[in-house]
Amino acid sequence: MHRGRWARTALATGLVFVFSMATVQCSSTSDSAGSGGFANGSGNGGSGNGSGNGGSGNGSGGSIIDSGVTPTDANYSADAFFAEDPPPADCSDSGAQPMKPGGTPECPDDKNYKGCPCPTLGATAPCWPGKRKNRNKGLCKDGVTTCESTGELSLAWGECVGYQGISPPTFEPPPGATGKAACTCFSGGYWDVKNTSPCFYTSGSTVTGGVSTILDASGARCPTTQEMNFSTGTPPAQPFSPNTLKVDCNGYFKLCYTLKALSAQGAQKSSATDCAVTQVCTEAYYGMAGKGPNGTDGVQDMPDLPGWITKTSAETACAAQFYANGGYGEFSVDGTSDECDKVQKIFMTFDYCPFKCNDPANKNDPECVNCSNGSGAPF
Q1: What is the pLDDT of residues 272-284, one digit of tens each?
Q2: HSE-up of 258 (CA within 13 Å, CB side)?
Q3: Which of 49, 74, 233, 348 is the most exposed place for a label (fewest CB within 10 A)?
Q4: Hey, how many other C-beta atoms are within 10 angstroms of the C-beta on 242?
Q5: Which of 374, 310, 376, 377 lies closest to 7 in space, CA to CA?
Q6: Neighbours of 128 (CB within 10 A)
């Protein structure tokens, strides 16, 4: 007789559980083949993105001209403006060319440097004494400048007041800054996966294999033997999990969930050497940065993580190792923002609850109170 057991993810930090041998039957199945299941819920850990203070203040980061002289309206090339201060890189598919500023390379009208000509006494405008690539990214924010009289007939922009994220004398983010303090387009994202619960089938004391659970109204359950087939390597037709993504910069992102087994009960996690039961991924272009409520970053539905089943002898052996020793889930990301920021890392690992936590009678046990079907983490 084949039995399935499912495992839920443990939310409690730092817990590595030894799995009990109590069998939990899947809902809507009997003692016949296909009953039971083991699924684990969401995890702990996860790596975030650091941030720091880049400073704020008054000052000018460009050349200051004699306010009594109006620059000549010359036909400057884009290179004249961008050679030392280029716009952000472009890795999008738009193919759009950066717009050349007006004015002169010393007084470009997109920066409004102190001492450069201005049109109307008392007028205010955004100003930025730093590099174009950092402007209004992360912690870097524009300041404000006011048009002032500098002579009987001359007007020029005054001090740039209130800019943030950079400071004299470099007018760049602090060396080694990361996250929002680095003032790049991408500084972080969040991946939320509704289901990370695997199922393991056994025949007597032998593990037949691992397979994705199915989400229904009552939560995660093991698929029946009519819904999947270990002999043919056919996973459930239903997807493993819906998932959503939120990022502070548009771009193309691939995110993966990997299920790994510990080498022994209570062993330390070792991503490089621990075997993998399975890995499933989703990838798409994310285009909701700044498009959420009140200009926040929007949550975007990603393609569902597909159903999975162990197919190779190595995967089946790893499923048996997970069943015996316990294991953990990993989240990883490989992405490129529209401004060519790269992110490639494992950003979260999470533990699984013991099998006994599938029994409602044990829901208040210390090792079961924080169990869940899914998980989410920042990257």
Answers
A1: 999 999 999 999 9
A2: 21
A3: 74
A4: 17
A5: 374
A6: 24
Angstrom distance (rounded) from CA 94 to CA 219: 42
Residue 222: both structure tokens together: 């093991």
Separation CA 226–CA 268 (nearest Å): 37
| Nearest in space to 127 (alpha carbons), one of 115, 109, 145 | 145
Q: DSSP strand E in the chain: where? A: 2-10, 35-41, 56-59, 124-127, 143-149, 155-157, 160-164, 189-193, 198-203, 206-212, 214-216, 219-221, 241-247, 251-261, 276-286, 300-305, 327-337, 342-351, 371-372, 375-378
State both tokens at 25: 């039957």
Report d(CA 352, CA 268) in Å as an integer.
14
* Of 199, 202, 225, 227, the residue nearest 213 (C-alpha): 199
Q: Are 346 and 42 spatial neighbours (Cβ–Cβ below 8 Å)?
A: no
- pLDDT tens by residue, 15-57: 222 222 222 222 233 233 333 334 443 333 333 333 333 334 4
Tokens representing 361?
Answer: 């009678």
Say what the pTM is: 0.77
How far apart, in Å, are the Cα atoms of 17 and each of 8, 110, 280, 356? 11, 58, 24, 11
Other C-beta atoms lying within 10 Å of the C-beta of residue 293: 6
The residues that bridge with 185 in the sheet, in sequence order, are: none
The Cα 196–Cα 47 span in angstroms is 18
